[in-house]
Specification:
The strands form 2 sheets. An 8-stranded antiparallel sheet has the order 1-3-4-5-9-8-7-6, with helices on both faces. Strands 2-10 form a two-stranded antiparallel ribbon. The protein has one domain (about 35-225). With about 220 residues, it is α+β, with helices and mostly antiparallel strands. The radius of gyration is 17 Å and the shape is globular. It is built from 5 helices and 10 strands. About 20% of the residues lie in helices and about 25% in strands.
Length: about 220
Amino acid sequence: MTIVKRDSMGESYCALRASRYGLHVPRERQGGAKGRDLGIRVGAVVALAAAVAFVAWLVVRHHNSSSPSAATTSTSSTQRPAPKRPVVIGATAQSLKTLAAVGNRPIYWLGPQRNTTYELTQTPDGKIYIRYLPPGVKVGDRKGGYPLVGTYPVQDGYKAVQTAAKESGAHTFKIPRGGLAVVNDAAPTNVYFAYPGTNQQIEVFDPNPTRARRLVATGAVRPIR
């Protein structure tokens, strides 16, 4: 889901990847193994249980981790382990703000939207997705085509974006607060950006390529406060 390429070029190499919610994926089909690795399971009871477990895990990590790698080390009997499967729940603007407050890194979004359901997904490897669903669309819907913001843990995310800029069909542009964004002709609906000195990479998907780029270029994609 991130633009961190998982092929022979190495984990640090940056290449365009579309999000796996039924979106256009030019270089790997959704039906492949990578397209299925989310393993999303949404049941009648999962929303409440997952929300409690997710927030509890973030609180524990916030208070007990002194470095990013600490989350992967063995935990004491009082700690909750990281979720083994992706957590997918419906959220409110307030619950997202609470979540961001207890985390140890920024979570990006498009801000509050009227008549919208916020779908929150968190994966075991630390990726966080916020998808904006219109009225009538249920959490967990796999049809895609809805705006999404992904926040990914990537070592030196700014350098990764610079590397992606060297790919054929790539275009870069500066964004507010000193960031750098990249978009590739192969997936114009997906824009990726990062800021110097951070270990994060942010993806913005919008079915309208022009709007996707404008959201990033104007600084509309920002950390939850």
